[in-house]
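Good morning,

Both structures are done.
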Amino acid sequence: MTPQILKPIEKLAREMWPGVPLIATLEPGASDAQFLNPSGIPTYGITGIFVDPDGGHIHGLNERVRVQSVYEGRAFLYRLVKMYADE
């Protein structure tokens, strides 16, 4: 990721979750990137949502995310979009 994309993410993550490392991961699921990347539009994803170490039983009948994580993720994404919009 370019510094223009990554720096705001790093800054906000440090503010909201001091000491928690920022780690890039592969999201193997389908996304709009399959159409945008071949068109020359770099595509990134970030959630700001923490899940349990077991993955939260992703896409299972008992899929779950902690309520606090949903609220924090919402605040993170809202603030991040504002940071990008203000640049």
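Second structure follows.
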Amino acid sequence: MSTIKTLLVDDEYLALNLLETFIKDVPGLEVVAKAKSAVAALDVLNEQPVDLLFLDIQMPTLSGVNMLKTLKHPPVTIFTTAYSEYAIQAFELNVVDYLVKPFPFERFLQAVNKAKEQLRLRQPAPPIAAAINSNNHFITAKVDGKIVKLFYDDILFVEGLKEYVRFICKSGKYVTLESLKNLEEQLPADRFLRVHKSYIVSKEKVQSVLGNMLEINANKIPISRGKREEVIGEIFGVGSMGASSFEESENED
């Protein structure tokens, strides 16, 4: 990313000035605001984007810990405090580092470098895209910082994990930042099928169906309620009557 927009929150004037002095010596960091209370900091966060938050813990009215708990999507956060006993609680809140006052510039820089790495990981991956050239039977995805090819023939199925998707392939497992809905639009419909809110399967890799579960190698993939007939028709090439006979034969068993 370009400039890291930084918010400083501390009820001590000298502490705010020291942080600002340190930040001036680090290229790529910009102080967008300073706040002497957590309440004032919340106002800043509501008004403008902030990438990195330096946050004191012990403050009047609202502590830094409780302020952070109110944020649904907090910035990358570094706690700055005179008290070491809050460290465990801080890391439970996914704080990237915990600076105990007074801290030297070297320790500050170490925390900033951790924050930069966390911000890099938060950067949205380029959208998964189908290859433009029809001769290329693959899509591309950002995995562990690398752009990789995922060939259609290698993909067994894809599992949705909230903001991420996990490709289960013959060659291994790959996780990338993407929604299953977007991926469904990118993968060729003649080869892949959304069978459940959390799963897309490769039609040709499905080996069998048992009840409401598809079997791919040793994996069992659920079928959404109400989609069983459609899924069987798409994957096994049978119409509605054929799909019904699948169900009847299973009931006889």
